[in-house]
Amino acid sequence: MLAWTSHGDCGLSAALAAARDGADERAQIRARVEAAGTSFYWAMRLLPEHRRDAMFAIYAFCREVDDIADSADALEDKCRGLDHWRDEIAALYAGRPTTALGRVLLEPVGAFNLRREDFLAVIDGMEMDAVTDIRAPSLAELDLYCDRVASAVGRLSVRAFGVATGEADRVAHSLGRALQLTNILRDLVEDAGRGRLYLPSELLRAHGIDSSDPAEVLRHPALPLVCDALAAIAEGHFADARQAMMQCPRRPMRPAATMEAVYRAILRRLRQRGWQKLAEPVSVPKPVKLWLALRHGLV
């Protein structure tokens, strides 16, 4: 479950397979990202075209491996699919990608010094979901998961934005974790339907919940206390990300500032809704997302 992706089917692989050349492949990726309806899109619109195309390709890669992990395929097929992408990343960094998406990634990898280990970390995070249904992980395991599926995406992203400093990596570290924890709190019911429970075991035990069964935990009267505690951790990451952003050039970090604003608004709406109406969806309306994108694009 990646922080910056939506679960709608965007049909990317089929569209890319039908593309005729590099320009057509990039256009297909742009069209599919636009159609996906992700909060990510509004932030990426703030980038110059060549950086925006790089981000759309990074997003497309994340969708590909996320879809493998979330598929109903047998475990061996999921592992085979993820291993295919490990091989493709190796081919990409050897300058010989074999897939349409790999060819689209080739230019931004060289132009923006995107790091191989960050692509591989995303795949490793997806493997954590694919191999077993995560249920009540330790705080350390949850943090590792967030680093792989969210902060690694952030480390790729800040380089595509145009900032490759220690403070930019700090933004990726903290904002990625904040976004992922917000997603976890937003998607409790959806994840439970997949047999997953990302709430950490230490917080569950601290509030008297001994079970790791998703359905049982979501019915427990102490659940709101656990969710409030995790939300507080997310808020701490948002605050640290904002502090780190202040040490970075403002213009290239506008997409990160927009994502921070959109997801902080989601977290605020979740807390206002409360943790006893989990089936009641929470989102930020499209006009608000557009306003936040304009606000952070103009300041």
What does this structure look like?
- This protein is mostly helical and 299 residues long.
- The protein has a single domain (12-298), classed as Farnesyl Diphosphate Synthase, CATH 1.10.600.
- The chain has 15 helices and no strands.
- α5 (75-93) packs across α6 and α13 runs antiparallel to α14.
- It is globular, with a radius of gyration of 19 Å.
- The two termini are 32 Å apart.
- Residues 5-10 have low confidence and may be disordered.
Elements, N to C (H/E): HHHHHHHHHHHHHHH
**End-to-end Cα distance:** 32 Å
> Quick one: how many beta strands?
0
Mean pLDDT: 89
The low-pLDDT segments are: 5-10
The largest pleated sheet is described as:
none
CATH level 4 superfamily: Farnesyl Diphosphate Synthase
User: CATH architecture, please?
Assistant: Orthogonal Bundle
What's this entry about, in short?
The protein has 299 residues and is mainly α. It has helices at residues 12-18, 22-36, 39-44, 49-70, 75-93, 100-112, 116-131, 139-161, 166-186, 188-193, 201-206, 214-219, 223-245, 254-273, 286-298.
Spell out the key features of this protein.
single chain; Farnesyl Diphosphate Synthase; mainly alpha; 299 residues
